[in-house]
Backbone:
């Protein structure tokens, strides 16, 4: 806001720009524009700011690694049948990128139903039974709190026994 004393001979102009302290370094220049007349004893202010915009990156969820070696011959045949059925229903796209994305989605969906996800083991003494208990506990937490507490106690006991046995 700029204001000149009315009926006064002083030519003092009081400039006041209200800005957050966060953007204070980005304020480069402030000028009073005396040309535009708005029927007031105030003058229009022009402020020059230099802002740096932050580029936001979208967080993509990593694709889980599947254990392809666990596919036995009967499950391999099921996988091939499921893939051929899904590819038969697939519509031909006009763009090669769209077709590639559709194909990769179909393969991943079929594989998720038949191949288990590779679990990274942080501790070598943790058995597969413990990892299954962890998965059960995770599911129970969503629906049944009493079952969750029960599984937590069982998991704690089993982990302690396996750690001591290792």
Residues:
């Amino acid at each position: 806001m700029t204001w000149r004393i009315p009926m006064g001979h002083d030519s003092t102009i009081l400039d006041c720009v209200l800005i957050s302290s966060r953007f204070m370094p980005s304020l480069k220049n402030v000028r009073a524009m005396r040309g535009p007349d708005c029927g007031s004893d105030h003058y229009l202010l022009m402020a020059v700011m230099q802002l740096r915009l932050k580029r936001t990156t979208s967080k993509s969820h990593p694709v889980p690694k599947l254990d392809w070696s666990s596919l036995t011959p009967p499950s391999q045949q099921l996988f091939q049948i499921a893939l051929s059925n899904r590819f038969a229903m697939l519509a031909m796209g006009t763009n090669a990128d769209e077709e590639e994305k559709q194909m990769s989605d179909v393969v991943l969906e079929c594989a998720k139903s038949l191949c288990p996800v590779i679990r990274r083991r942080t501790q070598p003494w943790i058995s597969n039974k413990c990892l299954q208990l962890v998965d059960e506990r995770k599911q129970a937490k969503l629906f049944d709190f009493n079952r969750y507490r029960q599984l937590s106690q069982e998991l704690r006991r089993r982990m302690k026994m396996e750690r001591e046995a290792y």
